[in-house]
Amino acid sequence: MSREMSTKEVAFVKNNLEKEVDGATLIACYESLVQIRFKRTDYRQLVLSIQFPKEYPDSVLLLEAKSKTIADELLAGIIKVTEEHLQTFKGKPQIVAAARFVRDFIWENRFVVCSEELSYIKKELVNVGDVIKVKQKLGVIQLKAVRNKYNLECKLTVPDNYPGEAVSFVVNSNFPSHLEKVFVGHATEMARQCVEPPILKKKSQAMEFVPKPSLKCVSSYLVEDCLRKYPTERCPCCKKPVLPEEPLTELPPSMAVELVYCGHLYHYDCLDLLMKSPPFGEAKKCLNCGKRIFHEKWNVSAKLMEERWAHQEARKREIDEVTDFLGL
Ligand SMILES: [Zn+2]
Ligand SMILES: [Zn+2]
Questions:
Q1: Which ligand is nearest to the Cα of residue 271, counting in written order?
Q2: Could you tell me the CATH number of the domain that includes residue 175?
């Protein structure tokens, strides 16, 4: 190692690095070790450790990256591309060049903190026939997935402060429009729960809340649980397909459908019949999964339901009696 050169470089780095590289903070600066912290947000941050190799500057710096929020696989990738970048700096000082390169990577890539989620979307969620476009700098993922004649397009945006702030999204599909609204409402709620603590009585519990990543859960709900599932789902009551084979954004009343709390889809008429017959209240279970059914459209108290049903039955009996009396 050219001793003189590294001494000079360490001195230069000590005095100039933070001026030269915006967003870099020098933690340690010795000939044995240089450490730099890069912090774009609470999540997009890492510490780069640098050592001089024996043959420096004729070989590239020895680099190591550590972060609590960035996946190890991606950290290894960042080091690899930085080392490649440094190849052109052989024979010259390399620390500032390395720092600039790492800094730009962290600053310009919003997917740094969700590389595993993004790779899940690319590898697991997208099937043959689907289309995915990723815009790194903007943090945008455009996904168009198909199932039979149904399709669902979503544009997901990873915010700068992700995962502290949830992913935002826009959905466009050829599902019945009111069903699409339910999908979007549910996904919005999932995303909100990832970043907002539940309302708790004790303040101490709220302190422990840590935002969770929302990209994977929102995208897999929309694609796996909605698009891939509903086009072939059968009504738990009549066992016929719930949605028409040919997509319609507005369903005629006779084909209307309703989604219940557990996520199962019913024909409106079938569900109406089910909700208006006993058992009522807590005992009302989804015919498919056995979870309790509630739906705001049938949000009348169990007691009232029971009374109504008893009244209807009584009327039926009355009519039966009358018909008997008339001998019809
Ligand atoms: Zn049905
Ligand atoms: Zn169910």
A1: 1
A2: 3.10.110
**Model's pTM, two decimal places?**
0.84
**d(CA 172, ligand 2 centre) in Å:** 25
pLDDT in tens, 220-238: 999 999 999 999 999 999 9
- Kindly state whether residues 120 and 43 are assigned to the same domain: no
For residues 150-164, one letter each, b for 16 or more C-beta atoms within 10 angstroms of the residue's C-beta and e for the rest, the string is bbbbbbbbbbebbbe
142 and 220 share one domain: yes
Centroid of ligand 1 to alpha carbon of 199 (angstroms): 38
- What's the CA-to-centroid distance between 124 and ligand 2, angstroms? 25
Instruction: Judge if 103 and 120 occupy the same domain.
Output: no
Q: How many angstroms does the Cα of residue 185 sit away from the middle of ligand 2? A: 18
Q: Examine the domain organization and report whether 99 and 156 are in the same domain.
A: no
User: Looking at residue 17, which CATH number applies to its domain?
Assistant: 3.10.110.10
Residue 204, domain member (yes or no): yes
Q: Assess whether 137 and 228 both reside in one domain.
A: yes
Question: How remote is the CA of residue 233 from the centroid of ligand 2, in Å?
Answer: 12
Rounded Cα distance between 298 and 293, Å, is 10
Structural domain for 136, as ranges: 113-232
Question: pLDDT (tens digit, 9 = 90+) per residue, 248-287?
Answer: 999 999 999 999 889 999 999 999 999 888 887 777 899 9
